[in-house]
């Protein structure tokens, strides 16, 4: 890591070159652009100066744009590098939408350069694709992320760059694991580890180490403890080697270790932390602020129930702002931020602000994932709920392939919860399964969607048998979705029964409704079913269904 003296020297050089470039841009602008790249790299080594690094890279991009106006061929690569590196820094700062736009522009520029001079620019394009893929994944766009990261891997293979292939495969394996595709992740990460062992082993020990830890995690997710054991030994060996030879990498290494629920023992080995101990302190560092954040969340939800969505949105916006700073260092504050973002995303969605809603939902999921490994009992339910919401937000923007992934993960988590405590979690499972059925339909998987719809109806019948007053709109949605799935499967003789059962239940569901009931969607479903029944000769029942749709509260 550079010292303060090095930083002062680079800052001085940049200041001098700025003055010289103002007087003689033709001569000094290219040197200024290179210097700014170096300054940004030094600043990025100081975590508290990441914002400055991002600003310096923005200045570098402006310099190379100006140079490119005079000589596009000579300076486009400099512009692409500045954009890509700024995207990387903005991602670290949590400014993911900005980071994505810059990474996409950088990748487009490098594609054009690689067409003309592949030998020179394909390595840069491969790195840029991985960078772009990471930003796509952070925005919840996992299928697109996989596509571009795989393209980067293919380029690395074409170049025969074993070190680059290992790095790109490591990124790909981690993304596959995040999508729940654990078997594929294991195969990919194993290949990456094998390549790291033989490709410049000293140069990439940090990445090698992170990839081994990711592989251990995926094997344990699959219950393959025995297969994980030799990789644990390899990770311990790498940690000791880096600690002895590259101590500056220790903060990065230990952060990766904590991410997977481990700490280093005094003897230099690894110890798995008990659930919750690494990320859930007994007392929050800012209890008064956290109490206020929780109170604001509760107030916002009451405002929603009263129909005041705009004021609820303002309240949650303030809650998010209040806990962002403490969330950087305090786990309880981070979880309060995740809750606030989740609720904010729900309300933004109900207000029709779908892009904002997606950003909030994706951030909430990201935060909950961070703490799931160290405190699964506390986080599993909130993550399941947040994933269900993320799937809905993605679907609202027409991104149906991406929406299916969080919907499937949400159902898997809710099944674990409902198996352990059905009285508490069956309703959540039904709601999550209902969302999954819609996502499966959007993906063209109609048989799977029909199976989900039948299971949802069965769960709601069980719930209504215990408490008929509590469950009204949920069963109505489930029955209408089942009827839609049956119609899609051309099972005409089975459509009528669930449709009329839904209509009968609606007579008990009049009056005020919560935005989460999605009455507009229900009205659309019933209107379609009315037309379907009329077309197939059930005219009287079709009129009843149409009246039920028209009578829904607005």
Main beta sheet strand tally, sense and closure: 2 strands, antiparallel
Q: How many beta-strand elements?
A: 2
Question: How far is it from the N-terminal to the C-terminal residue, by CA?
Answer: 61 Å
Task: Return the average pLDDT rounded to an integer.
Answer: 83
Q: What is the overall number of helices?
A: 24
Beta-strand content estimate:
under 5%
Oligomeric state, counting identical vs distinct chains: single chain
Secondary-structure element sequence? Answer: HHHHHHHHHHHHEEHHHHHHHHHHHH
Strand order of the largest sheet: 1-2
User: Which spans of ≥5 residues are poorly predicted at pLDDT below 50?
Assistant: 274-288
Shape: globular
| Helicity, as a percent range | over 70%
Rg over C-alpha atoms, rounded to the nearest angstrom: 27 Å
Query: Which class best fits the helix and strand makeup?
Result: mainly alpha
Give a short summary of the structure.
By secondary structure, this protein is mostly helical. It contains 24 helices and 2 strands.
How would you portray this structure in words?
This protein is mostly helical. It has helices at residues 4-23, 25-44, 50-70, 72-92, 96-116, 118-138, 142-159, 162-178, 182-198, 205-221, 225-245, 250-259, 287-305, 309-327, 331-350, 354-372, 376-396, 400-420, 422-442, 446-466, 473-488, 492-506, 519-535, 539-550, and strands at 262-264, 270-272. A hairpin with a 5-residue loop joins strand 1 (262-264) and strand 2. Mean pLDDT is 83; it is low at 274-288.
């Amino acid at each position: 890591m550079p010292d303060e003296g090095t930083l002062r020297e680079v800052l001085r050089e940049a200041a001098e070159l700025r003055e010289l470039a103002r007087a003689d841009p033709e001569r000094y602008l290219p040197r200024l652009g290179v210097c700014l790249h170096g300054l940004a790299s030094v600043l990025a080594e100081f975590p508290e100066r990441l914002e400055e690094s991002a600003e310096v890279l923005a200045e570098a991009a402006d310099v190379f744009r100006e140079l490119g106006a005079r000589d596009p061929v000579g300076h486009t690569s400099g512009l692409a590098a500045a954009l890509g590196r700024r995207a990387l820094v903005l991602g670290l700062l949590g400014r993911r939408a900005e980071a994505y736009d810059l990474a996409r522009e950088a990748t487009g520029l490098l594609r054009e350069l690689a067409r003309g001079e592949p030998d020179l620019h394909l390595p840069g394009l491969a790195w840029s694709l991985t960078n772009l893929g990471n930003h796509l994944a952070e925005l919840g766009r996992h299928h697109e992320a996989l596509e571009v990261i795989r393209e980067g891997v293919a380029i690395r293979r074409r170049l025969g760059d074993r070190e680059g292939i290992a790095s790109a495969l490591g990124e790909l394996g981690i993304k596959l694991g995040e999508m729940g595709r654990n078997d594929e992740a294991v195969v990919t990460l194993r290949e990456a580890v094998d390549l790291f062992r033989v490709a410049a082993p000293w140069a990439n020990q940090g990445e090698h180490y992170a990839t081994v830890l990711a592989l251990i995690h995926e094997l344990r997710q699959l219950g393959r403890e025995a297969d994980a054991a030799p990789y644990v030994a390899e990770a311990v060996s790498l940690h000791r080697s880096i600690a002895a030879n590259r101590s500056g990498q220790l903060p990065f290494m230990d952060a990766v270790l904590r991410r997977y629920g481990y700490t280093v023992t005094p003897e230099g080995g690894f110890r798995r932390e008990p659930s919750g101990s690494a990320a859930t302190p007994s007392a929050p560092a800012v209890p008064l602020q956290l109490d206020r954040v929780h109170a604001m969340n509760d107030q916002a939800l009451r405002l929603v129930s009263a129909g005041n969505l705009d004021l609820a949105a303002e309240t949650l916006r303030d809650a998010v702002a209040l806990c962002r700073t403490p969330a950087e260092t305090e786990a309880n504050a981070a979880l309060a931020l995740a809750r606030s973002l989740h609720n904010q995303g729900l309300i933004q969605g109900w207000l029709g602000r779908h892009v904002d809603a997606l950003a909030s939902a994706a951030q909430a999921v990201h935060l909950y994932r961070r703490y799931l490994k160290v405190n699964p009992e506390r986080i599993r339910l909130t993550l399941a709920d947040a994933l269900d919401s993320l799937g809905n937000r993605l679907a609202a923007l027409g991104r149906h392939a991406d929406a299916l992934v969080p919907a499937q993960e949400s159902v898997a988590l809710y099944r674990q919860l409902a198996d352990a405590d059905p009285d508490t979690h069956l309703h959540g499972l039904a709601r999550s399964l209902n969302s999954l059925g819609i996502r499966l339909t959007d993906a063209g998987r109609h048989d799977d969607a029909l199976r989900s719809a039948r299971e949802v109806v069965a769960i709601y019948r069980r719930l209504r048998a215990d408490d008929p007053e509590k469950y009204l709109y949920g069963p109505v949605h489930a029955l209408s979705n089942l009827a839609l799935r049956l119609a899609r499967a051309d099972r005409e003789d089975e459509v009528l029964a669930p449709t009329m059962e839904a209509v009968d239940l609606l007579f008990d569901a009049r009056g005020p409704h919560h935005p989460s009931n999605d009455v507009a969607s229900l009205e659309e479903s019933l209107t379609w079913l009315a037309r379907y029944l009329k077309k197939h000769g059930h005219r009287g029942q079709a009129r009843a269904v149409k009246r039920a749709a028209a009578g829904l509260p607005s």
